[in-house]
Amino acid sequence: MVFSFFKKPPPEKMVAKPAAAPPRPKAAEPPAGASSPAAEEAAGDLESLDFTAASGFSELSETPGDIHVENDIDPIEADIEQVAVLYANAQDEVARAMLENSVHAHPYGPGERLWLMLFDLYRLGDQRAPFDALSLEYARTFEKSPPAWRNGQPAPAKTAPAAPAGTVLFKGELTGDNDAAFATLDQAVDKNPKLRVELNKVQAIDDLGAERLLGVLAKVRKKRTEIELVGRDALAALIESRIETGRREESGCWLLLLELYQLLGKQEAFEEMAINYAVTFEMSPPSWEPQRVAAAEPKPVLALADDAVAATDAVRSYAPKGDLKAERFADLQGFAEKLDPLVLDFAAVTRIDFVSAGTLVNLLTAIKRQGKRIVIRHPNHLVAELLGVVGLRAVADIEFVKN
Predict the structure, then answer these.
(1) Is the pTM of this model over 0.90?
(2) Three-state SS for 172?
(3) 3-state SS track over 98-116
(4) How many helices (H) does the chain have, and how many strands (E)?
(5) How confident is the model at residue 403 (pLDDT cuts 50, 70, 90)?
(6) Model confidence over 311-328: pLDDT tens digits?
(7) Maximum Cα–Cα distance for the chain, whole Å?
(8) DSSP H helical segments within 296-390, as ranges?
């Protein structure tokens, strides 16, 4: 039987004893040598009693079923806790033997956690052959793909593709007072025979901003150069929410929306909007020109790179490495003061001992009280289960590597 390292067995439940029968009044003793009728009757009663028959008292004292000892320890949880502690104490061979036995003892739902621990034990020990053998067995048992082999090194950072020449990111909102963005756009028009303008960061527009962009498009057509607008769909949807048929306002937004429909090849929407424009402003609308329909919109490059930089600045991570033994995490508090949420990247942590895990949960509990979200990202399953044993799941979310 496996005993949990951390759970106290529940108290014994005792069956209530039956109340003892009150003593009978003592009969008067007859004279010596005399036999009274009462004595003879008592003797007969004694002869009729069977002391071997079961009674409430004898059942209490002799029958083991009357004392209930409940054992609510989940055998899977018990194995997980024991392996996590063994690994934390660097008893890898004992942990491996126990895991190899446990995965066959628990080849179903919750037991998958034991399989994942064994996968990571093989991977961290650079044991590719047993890892591959376990992968085949895992696929048959759980009917899904097994974890992928990783060499433990962090994945190289993805670099954004190079932006085509003449690409400009329109920074800020498409409003008439955004002089800096329009000045950059005008300079790009003068320097590039083929211009690509990314509008993906635009979240607001006003009528004067629409008119200024229409002026840039007119300038490009006059120069007989090319311009490609990226983010056309989102910008069209933004304008649609501003205009209303019959309300003679924001004519610049109306005309820019017609231009976007033209570039997007939305002829039916263009013609309906052209009629509404004529009714609202009592002016002739632009005509549909099939040759001006643009090619499919490409993905933005500069806008995505800008998002990546912003994400790096906003969500950095505290990243310890290697075997953490008696670690005090002295710099964690100062790091946490600057970040919300607090992300701890455990991808490069191979092992954490019990003392370090306890220290970590105490520090994070204090940080959690400040109202911050805490995330432990990409720990191996052996480390994650030990963190669970010490109670870290109550204060932090754990995110595993996606296969």
Answers:
(1) no
(2) coil
(3) HHHHHHHHCCCHHHHHHHH
(4) 15, 11
(5) low
(6) 454 446 789 999 999 999
(7) 146
(8) 302-314, 332-336, 354-368, 381-389
